[in-house]
Amino acid sequence: MTTTDYQKIIRQTTFALSAPTLKLCPADTGFEVAFAGRSNAGKSSAINTITHQKQLARSSKTPGRTQMINFFDVGCQHSRIVDLPGYGYAQVPEAMKIKWQKELENYLVHRESLTGLILLTDIRHPLKYFDEQMLHWAKDGSLPVHVLLTKADKLKRGAAKTALLQIKKQLQALELPFSIQLFSALNKEGLDELADVLGNWLHLGENLDLTDTDLVSQNIANNELQSSD
Questions:
Q1: Three-class SS of residue 150?
Q2: Which residues, including other chains, have CB under 8 Å from residue 27's CB and lie 6 or more apart?
């Protein structure tokens, strides 16, 4: 499938459910890609931008307070985007931090349907402690990682490219399968590359019945209409 095909399917993404713990997550079948990052890394913006929907993923007004694991069906129930709780804010009670960390570790290491991790990190403040912890858990779970250097529009092109190369060297030292890109929800930079990663990891070409073109066209039209409101 082409990048355009993947993008059309991803635009059909719909909210499925929120789960406070791993035990209450959907059945561990099909294919999932998790989005993770610090509470100010731009996870909600990235999900809303790639799905072409303004409020599919909603960020909390109080950083670090979104405690749910949020699931979104991509084209069909067998392919899902998972929005993991944000992390890294000091004002969150310590007991809550520990609880979240255990849930995140269990999810990344033991979730059978999880095919990859999208790690979002602000290009101006990349790979902080909890980001590195997520990378280690991904390695323990034998997960490939795709790193989004978010808010790339905040740096000039030369500085952004330099940051990309520096962070790539840091990731190579961890000896885990990874890819990395610049991303800006504001400028829509990096959407094609991210769509390709999601399309491949979610096996979108295998799990969506594309023969029902009327239904596909209707879903895309509805989402585009919603995003223009």
A1: strand
A2: none
| CA atoms of 88 and 20, how far apart (whole Å) | 18
In the numeric block, which tokens belong to residue 154?
């905040």
Residue 216: pLDDT above 70?
no
The DSSP code sequence of 162-228 is HHHHHHHHHHHHTTS-EEEEE-BTTTTBTHHHHHHHHHHHTTHHHHS-TT-HHHHHHHHHHHHHHHT
Mean pLDDT lowest among 11-15, 31-35, 113-117, 209-213: 209-213
Task: Place 215 in a pLDDT band, splitting at 50, 70 and 90.
Answer: very low
pLDDT in tens, 184-205: 999 999 999 999 999 999 999 8
Tokens of 2: 């082409």
Q: Where are the beta strands (DSSP E) in the chain?
A: 14-19, 31-37, 69-74, 76-83, 114-122, 145-150, 178-182
Q: Is the pLDDT of residue 61 over 60?
A: no
**Helix-, strand-, coil-residue percentages of the chain, each rounded to 5:** 45, 20, 35
Question: How far is the C-alpha of 97 from the C-alpha of 87, rounded, in Å?
Answer: 8
Residues for the chain: how many in total?
229
